[in-house]
Design a protein that fits this description.
heterodimer; A: alpha+beta; six-stranded antiparallel beta sheet; four-stranded antiparallel beta sheet; 20 helices; B: mainly alpha; Helicase, Ruva Protein, domain 3; 2 domains; about 0% strand
Amino acid sequence: MSEIGSFSLLLALALSAYSLLAGIAALTYVGPQAERLGETARRAGIATFAAVLMAALVLVTAAFSDDFSIAYIFHHSNRDLSAPYKFATLWSGQEGSLLFWSLLLAGYGLVLRLRHKTDQRLFAYASVIIAAVQLFFLLLLNFAAHPFAVVEGQLAADGNGLNPLLQYPEMVIHPPMLYLGYVGFTVPFAFALSALIMRYPGEKWIHITRRWTMVTWGFLTIGIFLGAHWAYSVLGWGGYWGWDPVENASLMPWLTGTAFLHSVMMQEKRGMLKIWNMWLIFTTFMLCILGTLLTRSGIISSVHAFAQSSIGSWFAWFLAFTLAVCVGFFVVNKRHLESEHRLESLVSRESSFVFNNLLFVLACFTVLWGTWFPKLSEWVENTKVTVGPPFYNSVAVPVALLLLLLTAVGPLLAWRKTSLESLKRNFLWPSLGAFAVGVVMIVFGVRPWGQISYFYSFVAALLAALVIFTVLSEFVRGGRVIAGHTGQNLWLSMVQLWHRNTRRYGGYVVHFGVALVMIGILGTPFNQEAEKELGYGDKLNIGKYTLVCRSYTQDDKPNYSSEWAVIDVYQRDQLAGAPLETMYPERRFYKASQQSQTLPQIRPHFTNPLVVTDLYLVYEGINQDTGRPIIKAHLNPMVSSIWLGLLVMIFGTVIALVPNASAVRAIAPARVEAVPLGAGD
Amino acid sequence: MSFKLRRSSQVALLSFAILASMGAGDEESRFQSLGHEMMCICGCGQILLECNHVGCRYSDRMRSELVAGLDRGENDQLILQAFVQKYGTTVIAAPTRTGFNRLAWIMPFLALILGLVTSALIIRAWKERAAPAASARAGPSLTQNELDDFRRQAREETKL
């Protein structure tokens, strides 16, 4: 079986090399054969997908058939692994994940090449660039990280098994989502570089890549949040984001990608920021590669850099080559990107986008700086330092608050110019709403003057409320206008409003989701935790709850054995009567890998009418000295809001992708002239 | 800068400093604060008070040492210094604010200031460039008053 896989990879390598070389030849030489040559390059690109798919299928089949003659399967699977995790073996290790990356890239390339009639020459250039990236990954797979390497000597009866941390349902979804995001940014990068190389006239390439970028951004967002949710649900430390270099690696392209999604509107609407946008998308792609370099090279130490090897140098060279190509073509063709930047007013959507981009890029720089500083310190001073959460929380929080402020203010500013009168009118109700939220928080006991973290949380809550009220007021105001003209009810009018400009209102929904995420994050300073050895009938108090240990029990399954605690949850010191609920935090021992893993149990509770708090229980295991089990409890307020915010962000992204309906005829003439007052994206 | 503005800034700064320093001092909050300024060195990459590995050979011991330091009445600096001497510089969860490490803290804020200044200059340049072009486009037949009338009309018609 490994021979079929190896052959498929070699075939894919040859096809992608042909697609690249023939593509370049077809674009370079003008002649009767150029078009046919270009067509063969396109078809070779399509065939690359088939070959890589075959290799991936072979690897998955090998996992399902327990073919431990393949070293990769031996190291990352075992006989008793359940079917979804056997499938996930494909991306669980270094070689497989590179194959998966290559497969996704080939898949994106396939879609691009099938849609080539949109603009044949632009797509031909983009196809060549994707073939070049594909070639790099296939070289890596064939010569540096071969997934079909065979085990030498006698075969083992069973494999080493999958890392226990990865045996969780979300790990079947999280890596594909993240990779779809990482890999997907190759497409807008390819289009941007193509447009630069061929001095593409106008902004059509932006329109073509807009959906690609939004879809890719959506996948990356889902991937990052699923990773955070996995950390929260599996790692058992009660948090969801640890500012680990691998987490940072995924956040950086997300930040620049988000900046691009905003600034690209400046180019579409006003023809501005052409150079900036070009470099934003170049940077985003290079940050994806840098992230892969960080994850796999071992340059920066990280808890969950899941694979480390010498392939880091391959990525470093590829990164340097990509940068050289981008700089080279930029220097040659930069005159093509020159544009007339004009601004009629400082108080305008354009200004807000400039500052929004500044803050996103600054946030990215901060994360990059913090991630690389330990290495820098080692080079300069020969001293190792840690750059952990206290650094990021001090530096990134003010930037995040400024961004949240712009999220609230930006949508209320019109393109070109916003009058003071409209500014006052638009801000009145959202500001009053945010003020009311602040008052309610103080009434419910929040004291922003207690600690600096409480102060930050309070400000973040006010700004999140301002964002939410801004979004709601935009929907209500626009809905009322349509309702006034059509006689429909407000809800239908708001749906119609969204359908008239899906990107704008989808974007507002995403902003709403971001505000919910921020509300979830700002609960962190109010977290509580308690830890105790709990024998039968012992109690542990935390917040408003008393936890009573009822029992411990065990189970044995083919892949793992487990033990878990049975904990009754009561209102604090009210132990008479039935418990509020019973929780079962678990600890597993995986037989193949001989590793143990906690599985916390999390239950959300309303601790007051406005606050949902997670009761988070971890069965930490047995204290070897006393022989008694240890239970750790956390109370994490508002964390559920983060996951709710993600759902809202996904919903917003999806509705932003829906094509616009034609304008309502009845009010169309008036809308045409209404540019300065909040129209447009 | 006017007297009122200067005085307001001073009051704001003072209030902020008071806000930031309030609540510090009691032993439990010092334990929490110091425990979150240090890393567990077992290799888990987690903050000391968040390391939850059963059988971790370091976190329990480190927590006990932290409690002992607090019981001895040592100040925060002394406790951190003792940990650095015993476990190395990587035990501190963030770079110190001395020597080369100061750069870690300065750079993001320096970048913010530079970015803000650059953006403000760019926006001002765009604004200055726009003024003559806008009047040229408007032409002699379209005065500012007329433009204002059109804007007002648009507002009324759209109720926006």
